[in-house]
UniProtKB/TrEMBL annotation:
Residues 351-369 have a biased composition (Polar residues). GO terms for molecular function: 1-phosphatidylinositol-3-kinase regulator activity. GO terms for biological process: G protein-coupled receptor signaling pathway. This is Phosphoinositide-3-kinase regulatory subunit 6. Residues 349-371 are annotated as: Disordered. It comes from Cyprinus carpio. InterPro entries: PIK3R5/6. GO terms for cellular component: phosphatidylinositol 3-kinase complex, class IB.
Length: 702
């Protein structure tokens, strides 16, 4: 994206803008641009490194998220100054999975697109755009890039770039050995192996002269430097038909690594072992089985399927109505695994907080525990509207549930999640037209919120999401060219520079049906919950069409519901309240409409109600129960997803979702101590809530 540039000119422009007091909101976008340019620049003078490092330290005096971003980049600039070209080295080796003897880290980007939003033609174009660079990727050429960039970054004007480039192009088998020598030399100047910078430079100078002499190139003491490209990371595109496909791809990623045999010998990863119960705190009861034992005889859920081109079907992903076979015995987690999972919870969430706390969370955790090093990093990019985010939250919870019982993926893979909001096209809209409140018309509410709190996210990612639906119309019929990969370039920039997460609460819901023989369903949602009484809505519409200018009878004003909830306040005090009213539906949103609203609460809005019936038009709560005393039934839809729609519902219970890691620690403590309901020891520092972290460029900018 950005080639060789005059770094001093870039920093001068950045410094002028940064000194302006009215440009604080532009500090992080400008700093991201500067750091990304410095990563690709082949040589940067030492004084420029120092100026950027000093400026990043000055950001530590500012509030979040500026101090967090400044601390991160200050550490990178300090390491880069000690070993010029280090960031480029590690980035290329990890992203391209280059074999070497010094850096075992591997990264891969997985792009998952929701087929409810992406048509077949659009998916084909996007897949070609994202994966096209694989046709141009050559391990030897990447090794040459690392050697060329490292030597130029360290030697500067003492290196003649064109001669070095010609010499490396003539090499084939020797390139890998020179790569390992360069990495070994640079590694000695960093970390615990830190040595004299002059000695490191002298060794790199000797390697440079050796490369030129072995290829019989003439020695030029100084000259111009060659531009070294920064290729996009290795990415794969998937049309996301099944939730568990994410974790299957991660398992394949681990198997393909250099340590796959030792990792997979003792235990393999099968999605059939995933638990089918969502609530980790609920007791389990034995139920007599009446099925034939044949999978085709097991009936599915009530929701209808949607047919798509190519013969594939989007099926509802509700597992409660289906029996699943799980073999083997249930293994209890070891103390080591439980403590490791507990440490992950502490790293991700920081100190404990009540479910009703009015607090927004963004940026890095406040915990000072050292984070466990993992050799694999999986960057999951989800494309779609709020339905795709809901599926991601559900899949993430399934994984967390499984890992709480037997850790596998979380011990090896560092998960980072990204989101590109893409609105559905009219041609792919659901055929079922539902009359829902106007607040649900925004099918990318979560993406709109991220764009509101992070202007750089709005400028780059939200803009990309608006352009993606037009790719199928504007794309050419020829083969993709490396210089035309616009979507891949923006995604690469996002996954590299978007390192500040915004945490969204995941909420748990238990659904009770009017048919008492049907077991309650336990689910999760992250953006939206819709409650609808379709019979009353249709009756109201018919009455208005036939009878005009007449007061509507009370029985047609809506179903009678009983609503009880815990009201939260800034003082973190919970007050239990309740009331009854008639309504035709309710909209429960977990995404704030503006920056001042809290991100950890639900906003409940009832439709077709008079203000005098309730004291508050909008209710803010984290826990509530809704039921119909007159046995009327209603429908429930989660995250605006037709695949997660439940009918003939009698009552629901909603509460913040609990982290399985917290219950692991609590259950271990209760075995050895009396009074297990109280939080003691390390458990009192753990957050009970379970959140979905979505990476952005700056987190939340107030």
């Amino acid at each position: 994206m950005i080639g060789w540039i005059d770094s001093k000119h870039v920093f001068s422009c950045f410094h002028i803008q940064a000194e302006r007091t009215d440009c604080k909101n532009h500090l992080i976008p400008l700093l991201n641009t500067l750091i990304y340019a410095m990563m690709q620049t082949v040589y940067i003078p030492d004084d420029l490194y120092k100026r950027v490092y000093d400026f990043c330290k000055r950001l530590l005096t500012l509030p979040q998220p500026y101090c967090t971003v400044g601390l991160s980049y200050a550490g990178q600039m300090k390491a880069e100054r000690l070993a010029p070209g280090l960031l480029y080295q590690k980035m290329i080796i990890a992203e391209q999975n280059l074999k070497n003897e010094h850096y075992p880290q591997q990264e891969r980007v997985f792009v998952f697109a929701d087929p409810a939003v992406f048509s077949e033609s659009l998916s084909t174009v996007l897949k070609a755009d994202i994966e096209a660079q694989g046709m141009f990727r050559n391990p030897l050429s990447l090794m040459r890039c690392v050697v060329q960039h490292s030597l130029q970054a360290a030697l500067g004007e003492d290196c003649h770039g064109p001669s070095l480039n010609d010499a490396l192009q003539e090499m084939d088998q020797d390139v890998e050995s020179y790569l390992n020598e360069v990495l070994a030399t640079v590694d000695q100047s960093t970390g615990s192996n830190r040595g004299d910078r002059g000695q490191t430079r002298q060794k790199l100078q000797e390697l440079y002269l050796q490369i030129l002499s072995n290829t019989k190139k003439g020695l030029l003491s100084s000259g111009s430097l060659c531009d070294v490209p920064l290729p996009n990371p290795e990415m794969s595109f998937h049309l996301w038909w099944e939730e568990e496909e994410i974790w299957r791809e991660l398992a394949k990623f681990i198997r393909s690594g250099s340590f796959s045999e030792s990792l997979m010998s003792s235990e393999d990863f099968y999605m059939s072992y995933l638990p089918t119960d969502l609530n980790s705190d609920m007791p389990r009861y034995s139920v007599m089985s009446t099925d034939s034992g044949i999978e085709r005889d097991i009936q599915g859920t009530e929701a209808s399927d949607m047919e798509f081109p190519g013969g594939k079907t989007l099926k509802p992903e509700i597992t409660s109505g289906r029996l699943s076979r799980r073999g083997g015995i249930k293994l209890k987690p070891s103390v080591t695994e439980s403590m490791a999972l507990m440490q992950d919870v502490l790293e991700e969430t920081g100190t404990a907080g009540s479910s009703g706390t009015l607090q927004r969370r963004a940026g890095n955790s406040s915990t000072t525990l050292p984070k466990e090093e993992r050799d694999y990093t999986a960057k999951i990019v989800v494309m779609g509207d709020d339905r795709a985010v809901g599926r991601l939250a559900r899949a993430y919870y399934w994984l967390r549930k499984r890992e709480a019982r037997r850790r596998f993926l979380t011990t090896k893979v560092n998960l980072q999640m990204y989101y590109i909001p893409v609105a559905r096209q009219s041609s792919t809209a659901s055929p079922v037209k539902e009359n829902v409140p106007s607040t649900s018309n925004n099918f990318c509410a979560l993406g709109s919120y991220l764009g509101m709190v992070d202007p750089w996210y709005d400028c780059n990612i939200c803009s990309l999401g608006q352009m993606i639906p037009d790719l199928a119309k504007t794309s050419g019929t020829g083969k993709p060219q490396e210089s035309d990969l616009f979507s891949a370039d923006v995604i690469s920039y996002y996954v590299r520079m978007g390192q500040q997460p915004v945490y969204f609460n995941i909420f748990y819901i238990k659904i009770y049906f009017s048919n008492k023989s049907k077991e309650p369903v336990e689910e999760v949602f992250v953006t939206d919950l819709e409650v609808d009484f379709p019979e009353f809505r249709m009756a109201q519409a018919a009455y208005k069409d036939t009878v005009k200018q007449k007061k509507m009878p009370a029985e047609l004003c809506g179903a009678l519901i009983s609503f009880s909830y815990l009201k939260v306040s800034l003082s973190n005090r919970e007050v239990e309240k309740g009331f009854s009213l008639r309504t035709t539906g309710a909209q429960i949103s977990a995404i704030p409409q503006n920056k001042t609203e809290d991100l950890n609460c639900l906003t409940v809005t009832f439709s077709d109600t008079k203000p005098k019936n309730i004291t508050e038009t909008k209710i803010r709560t984290c826990n509530f129960k809704l039921k119909t005393p007159d046995k009327s039934t209603f429908t429930v839809r989660l995250d605006k997803d037709f695949r997660r729609k439940f009918m003939n519902v009698e009552s629901i219970e909603v509460a913040p979702c609990r982290d399985p890691g917290y219950y692991i620690q609590k259950s271990l403590k209760s075995k050895f101590m009396a009074g297990g309901d109280s939080d003691t020891g390390l458990s009192k520092y753990m957050s009970k809530g379970f959140t979905l972290p979505i990476n952005t460029f700056a987190g939340i900018i107030d």
